[in-house]
Amino acid sequence: MRPDEARSRLARLGFEADDVEALAAHFLDADARGQSGHGVSRIAWLETFEELDAKARPQRVTAEPGYERWDGAGAVGYLTLEAVVRAQLAAPPDRARLVVCSRTFPTGSLGYWVRRLAEAGLVGVLTATSPRRLPHPSGGVPLTGTNPLAIAIPSSDAAPVVADVSMGAVTHGDVLAGRARAEELVPFGGPQAHKGFALAVGLQLLVDALSPDEGFGAVLLVARPESDPVPALRALADGVRLPGNGSGSAD
Q: Are 154 and 123 within 8 A, CB to CB?
């Protein structure tokens, strides 16, 4: 899908111009990084939402120096995280801030959001819940979402490290795109899948415990770095690709 077609289809869904650009930027960035499951293919998915409210606006309901809470308030999760990131960039914390987002879905490629923080010199750690799709490694009903975790660390060399990992062996986007079967959506790790499952459970309960509302949510930690560890690690890696360098299905 061409960028102009993507923007046109988003506009037909009722999104205003600024929101169209925010959504298109996210989808196009995902495609450019090889994350097509989070790219413009998701527009067709949005077109199936019966209760999509393109005019809804996320709300910041609590604002304290070290804590914020946001309510998606009917807006698509992409736009809630867009508002959250813009707010942190406009007024970074003195040291650190925890941001809890309730009723926030879908959230897309989490690496996209924390990368923007890192490019502005901030550390970002973000996780989000989604529909329960991962069963216990021994089988049974799905108990958690794929619950990705993204960590972005800024660098004085202007190339942040961005690690963005889903707890699933494949992503739901892969299933939607036909690159994987639904039954392949299990905790990552193969014989060590209990580790991926444990992370998924921990992240699920972290978000659920901090959000006062039912439904899917996200939790962001944003902080000012106290040191600059990336260049030394990059030198030690001696050419080995670090997360966030170039494209890839996951940062």
A: yes
